[in-house]
Amino acid sequence: MIDIPATAPDTTGSAPAGSTADTAVLPAVTSAPAPARLEARAVSAWFGTHKVLERVSLDMPAGRVSALIGPSGCGKSTFLRTLNRMHELIPSAAMSGEVLFEGEDVYGAGRRLTDARRRIGMVFQKPNPFPAMSIYDNVLAGLRLTGTKASRREKDELVEECLTRAGLWKEVRDRLRQPGGALSGGQQQRLCIGRALAVRPRVLLMDEPCSALDPTSTRRIEETIQELSGQVTIVIVTHNMQQAARVSQQCAFFLAEQGTPGGIVEHGATEQIFGSPADSRTADYVAGRFG
Ligand SMILES: Nc1ncnc2c1ncn2[C@@H]1O[C@H](COP(=O)(O)OP(=O)(O)OP(=O)(O)O)[C@@H](O)[C@H]1O
Fold first, then answer.
1. Which of 35, 61, 132, 203 falls between 20 and 30 A from 227, CA-CA?
2. CA contacts within 13 A on the Cβ side of 169
């Protein structure tokens, strides 16, 4: 698990501050784009000389929720971070293979890192809103980071739409000027989901989004994931088997055995992975016999 500093959240996997990329794009006046298909082909990853993933291939269908499960340290978060090119931010990190976004490799020649980050948003384990920034401005933070311009009316509409999609609007509509840090942990996480949605991603990566939350807040995030399903492609890392079973339509079981790099043992429809897994290691893991 890689820590992202709370003081400098990469809210959406967006472009760095000051970037003027995509200034012509006005997400506020466009409708949410269709969810995109993501496909990993033979993805391997390293930290220095330590190989942590071995030729992982996975199809993540458009508009579906794909859950990545497996014991600690088997490379789930690393795999997730190769999908929107966050892995390469770590100085010692390297990867090989392809990540196809609607058939085009996000690592292909001429492909920009900022495009991958904007199209493929991310929500982290620990809610990381800008604590002193208002709820309203938190939602729009990604627009500022990508240099996107919008009128006041467009911003108002975007804030309402994204907070509604994130399942938070009714709770905060009367206090949009209050700081994001004043919300509960679960509300902060839904604010982060709203913030990620504001730059119109077609895929949303979620790295254990409920692990810092209480059961009620967890349930609320799960409802939000279910509501977003169909609107945006979701890939979620979770240690919670019940959660994987509740929110996902397909599941991939990762394992790194005895010092070998992590890989996928088995993937398929969630009912099949939990109900009749083909591999005995999957069966043992989903039954809680290890990990
Ligand atoms: N920044 C880093 N530098 C060096 N090694 C790292 C780094 N991040 C992760 N690793 C190593 O890569 C391997 C895979 O870690 P990763 O966090 O992807 O696994 P995971 O399955 O997501 O684990 P968890 O469920 O505990 O988050 C581990 O051996 C870990 O120690």
1. 132
2. 13
Q: How far is the CA of 76 from the centre of ligand 1 (A)?
A: 8
Best of 47, 125, 243, 253 for a ligand 1 pocket test (most atoms within 8 Å of beta carbon): 47
Tokens 């933070």, residue located = 141
Whether ligand 1 lies within 6 angstroms of the CB of 27 is answered as no
Which stretch of DSSP H or E encloses residue 46?
strand 38-47
Determine whether the shortest distance from the Cβ of 73 to ligand 1 is under 6 A.
yes
Q: Using a 6 Å cutoff on CB, does residue 48 contact ligand 1? A: no
As a whole number of angstroms, the distance between CA 25 and CA 17 comes to: 16
Token pair 């996480």 in the structure block, residue: 189
Contact 4, 127 (CB under 8 A): no
Query: pLDDT tens for residues 129-160?
Result: 999 999 999 999 988 777 778 889 999 999 99
238 lines ligand 1 (CB under 6 A): no
Tell me which H or E stretch contains 197: helix 185-197
What is the separation, in whole angstroms, between the first and last Cα of the chain? 16
Fold designation for 37-286: Rossmann fold (3.40.50)
